[in-house]
Design brief:
286 residues, 4-stranded parallel sheet, 7 helices, 6 strands
Length: 286
């Protein structure tokens, strides 16, 4: 941040004072909430990789849009279980987000932009469901806008990392950390899990999991866990990373997110209108 934080800490809420936030609320009811996780990112990236991205990208979007940025939520559900990973169950993560939004809404905030820097299918589904139920059940949010904005939805057009199966701790994430906090990248310690694990995980990010059942029957709920032969936890090819790629990726993400936030800000009038709804496929058919 190219300014004296002590004198002008905006848009970072945790560096501001009660007086500063109160003054902000006289001119805006919008807030950005970055979300990360503490989880395995191989031997070359720090456990807080997603949180680093959330901190930096959140601040940059806040500066571009003039919207205050709440403290980053560090804990979410990872699904991995290598040393250092902290798993908060999806239900608890959802309650933390819910209570955070309720607290902010009680102060007067009404437009909430959740910047999601950690994927994970269980985590994303739980968060989406929790936000829908919050809007449905809590009258405090009758006029509130909640936008769930995963960073991967704002990738630059020439970012083909996901097409290559570069899901996690690969060249995309490594490049961005190289650009943001290069001192935390340890490329000299880079290792990958053995084949065919790497090929399998490139095909689908949830292929890091295994399912077990006491009885192999469709009605028996499986116990899911990380494959025990995963020792490193990288899904991608980090050796292709560079700070130049990282800077370009970050610039594109920040621009895309900032443009979308400003677009939503211009349209948000606090009035809910009916929109198209397509139900999920039926699950009661035999």
């Amino acid at each position: 941040m190219n300014k004296n934080i002590a004198n002008d800490p905006f848009p970072v809420m945790e560096h501001m004072t009660v007086k500063m936030v109160r003054e902000y609320l006289t001119r805006s009811k919008s807030i950005i909430l970055p979300m990360g996780v503490i989880e395995q990112h191989g031997y070359h990236l720090p456990l807080k990789t997603d949180t680093i991205l959330a901190n930096h990208i959140g601040r940059m979007v806040g500066e571009q849009t003039g919207i205050i940025v709440a403290p980053t939520i560090h804990q979410s559900f990872s699904g991995g279980d290598l040393p250092g990973t902290i798993n908060i169950s999806p239900a608890v993560m959802s309650l933390v987000v819910r209570d955070t939004l309720v607290s902010l809404a009680a102060q007067g905030f009404r437009n909430f932009y959740l910047l999601l820097c950690h994927g994970g299918s269980e985590n994303a589904r739980a968060l989406d469901n929790a936000l829908k139920l919050l809007l449905r059940l809590n009258p405090m949010f009758e006029n509130a806008l909640i936008a769930l904005m995963p960073t991967w939805k704002f990738r630059p057009d020439d970012d083909n990392s996901l097409d290559e199966g570069d899901w996690h701790a690969g060249w995309n994430e490594t490049s961005r950390i190289m650009a943001l906090e290069p001192e935390l990248v340890r490329m000299d310690e880079l290792e990958l899990d053995a084949e065919p694990l790497m090929k399998l995980m490139a095909e689908h990010p949830d292929n890091y999991q295994r399912a077990e059942k006491i009885v192999d029957d469709e009605f028996v709920v499986p116990r899911m866990s990380q494959k025990p032969d995963i020792k490193v936890g990288v899904m991608g090819r980090p050796e292709k990373a560079s700070p130049e790629i990282g800077r370009k990726l970050i610039e594109g993400i920040v621009k895309g997110m900032s443009d979308k936030v400003l677009e939503l800000e211009a349209k948000a009038d606090g009035v809910y209108k009916e929109v198209a709804f397509t139900p999920e496929p039926l699950i009661i058919k035999k």
